Amino acid sequence: MTLAPDRPVAVPVSPCARPRRVVIGFALAVGLLGLSVAASLLVGTREIAPGTVWNALFSPDRTLTDHTVILDLRVPRTAVGLLAGLALGLAGALMQGVTRNPIADPGLLGVNAGASLFVVAGIAWFGVTSSLGYVWFAFAGAAVAATIVYLIGSLGREGATPVKLALAGTALTAAFTSLITIVLLADTEAFDRYRFWAAGSLVARGLDAALPLAPFILVGLVLAIVAARMLNALALGDDLARGLGQNLITARIVCAVAIVLLCGSATAMAGPIVFVGLAVPHVARWITGPDYRLIIAFSALFGPTLLVLADVLGRLIAQPGEIEAGLVVAFLGAPVLIALVRRVKLAGL
């Protein structure tokens, strides 16, 4: 009797593998977030010992210069990074889910450009100078841009396909960027105020800029959690989602409101930062699989971690100066975008 040649045997994946991976990933995500916060408080042009940082946080003495640096400079910029990163990470996850587009991002679909255009209008024509003033213009601009992109992308027989949405977002971004340039060239004072904000910086953003916008981000977070189960249904396609009893209009409205709140708040707070919303959901999806309840949770951790670490890296690579966090994220995000365009399949969403 002859024996059949050896063949590779398929080893079934343990049903516990995914939960174990999620638990380990969650622990690592929380640990990375904590390390990023610690690094943001410790690293800067002024060297401050860890013990001094601890004392500044828990027994501050305003007569000490090091304590003042920690409390007035590093704590506020860390808070802004956490809030803006949270908002952008969640917004990216929601946009990729609701459009079923693997390269959806507030920057790539024109939402940031719309918010920026309206903020420029507020600066140039209404003399707005505060983050709380910016946010209302940012909300309006984000909503207008999202509506225009969706309407243009919906034209034609196939409806709002990922490719059409991406093309519409790119075209709208180009148009809005041109309008921004026209407004700024006509108003040098507005240009001086805008250029620093537009770089996507966490510098010179105090708690007075972050705390008034925190409630909007909190509402966006709650809506994102509510939308997670809806996105799981939408990922199956419109027909199957309807068959499961999902109201598509309600789902998209909830996601749209959350995206506008999150993108508008982040843009008003830290400027038009791109690629955070693109990369973060894919990292989360690699750990969690396609369940948007977990993707939303992990995006809420990875978003602030990425932005705060980008800010820390910007302080280190250009001493004694620093590079804005938005520029560092853009530099890191470009290879991610190229890799996604080449490798990610829509079915993977």
Which architecture per CATH?
A: Orthogonal Bundle
Radius of gyration, in Å, reads 22 Å
Sheet with most strands: none
Q: Which whole number gives the mean pLDDT?
A: 82
CATH homologous group name: ABC transporter involved in vitamin B12 uptake, BtuC
Structural class call reads mainly alpha
Beta-strand proportion: under 5%
Number of strands: 0
What is the subunit arrangement here?
A: single chain
Taken together, the total number of domains comes to 1
Keywords: Cell membrane, Membrane, Transmembrane, Transmembrane helix, Transport
Subcellular location: Cell membrane
Transmembrane segments: 22-43, 78-95, 107-128, 134-153, 165-186, 209-232, 253-280, 292-313, 325-344
GO molecular function: transmembrane transporter activity
